Amino acid sequence: MVDDTYSARAATVSGSSTAEDQRVRLLFCLIVAIFKAATLIYAAGGLLQDPDNWWHVRVGLDMLSSGTFPTVDTYSYTFAGSPWIAKEWLGQILFALAYSLNGWNGVTLLTIAMSTLTVFLLAWYLSASLKPTVAFGLTFILSLLIGPILTARPLVFTLPIIIIWTAELFRAARDERAPPLWLLPLICLWANLHATFTFGFIIAAFAGLDFLARTRLTKPGLLGKWIAFGVLCPLVTLLNPYGIKAILATFSVAYGNEAVAYIDEWQPFNASDSYLMEAFLLVALLGLLVSRVQIGWPKALFLLFNLHLLLTHQRFAYLFVLLVPLILAAEIGEQFSWVSAHKWAKGHLDRLEQFLASHFHSISAAIGILIVSTAAIFSSVSGVEPSPKTSAKGALAFAQQHNLSGNVFNSYNFGGTLIFHGIKTFIDGRTDQLFLNGFMKKTMLAGNSGGKPILEEQMKTYAIGWALLATGDSRIPFFNELTGWRRAYSDENAVIFIRE
Length: 500
Description:
mainly alpha, four-stranded mixed β-sheet, 5% strand, globular, transmembrane helix, transmembrane
């Protein structure tokens, strides 16, 4: 009877301690997420710097108004009628709804919400293996590194998904159990949000290899479930408006897309332009070498795969930043007790942690009120607008006032705003499916030394009526020399040329 009473008291104490630990962990995750949200709100205009922000919203608005999914290009005159699908249709509709509710403020607020959720989930999964203070600091650093991709593009909706997908699959492999079937609807959602969903297949394959390396064919039944899961992954992603076309479209960049050589985000990693990322890579490499952390060969291959993506195309740096710490956290927490979440949970909370645990409900309520009030104030007061470098606001106002007509020859970065304002483009950001067969290459060559004849050929071929160019466009000197053309408008961001 005495032993039973002692066991019951011990269980009560243990349960109370576990509850306090979870509260502390949750609050640390919330706090780092709120920090990220605060920085994004402070610099909200930076979320609308990309020229693609414009056309993603317009495509979403058009789908909402027409009730149909596009299958051919209707936004350019150079490739009008060519096959084109809105493979990121759901993300575009979400942005369109946000825009309909509150203009660009709504789009920005939605982007901030998804970015904040991403940071929270990253901290949550890291803190499962690393003690909260370590997870907090690491998440803060990683959130700074992914800053460049936090823009109002459909990719931002996939960041929480890829964190959950990776963490849950590798945890299932580590625990030597079958992959959770509830992840299948998640990758189906991913497939309707953004073309990167095919990375989900690769992540699942690496997690499956990790499971195989741990079990060494001793659990054939579970191995069969992993194989079945791998087969189901591509099948469920067919549940989208375009079926197999959505999967095939994801390979258009990887296999010979001519636009890759000319778009900044698809360029190889350049350390001279990314000091912070270079420092992170060097520190991470130093830490792995000095600490001699032991990881299995599947995770080592996964690390190298993500490093290869980063070095090949700098836009994939976020995969390395988010996923490599996620998969290594378990081994680091297990092999180094001073950062272990398990050891931390067995010890006593420090003063800060005790304060957080004892005031959990009041702090949570304060955070909730802060979030709601900040969102309300931001929505009603802030007047966020896309970057003037992509909007050509003054130039388009001039074009409207002077009734400029005919096909427009535009700089790449003005393609999005032209689509948004209902003007058919010469070229725009949809180069993953359009502006191929030598068109992109020829357009870029027209801006090189000796490119004037190419420019004149394009002007004739496409019956150009006027030109809208960014002030730094290398073709401006050629336009200054063209017979029958004159500069009609210019400001710090845009120049308009019209025929005499």
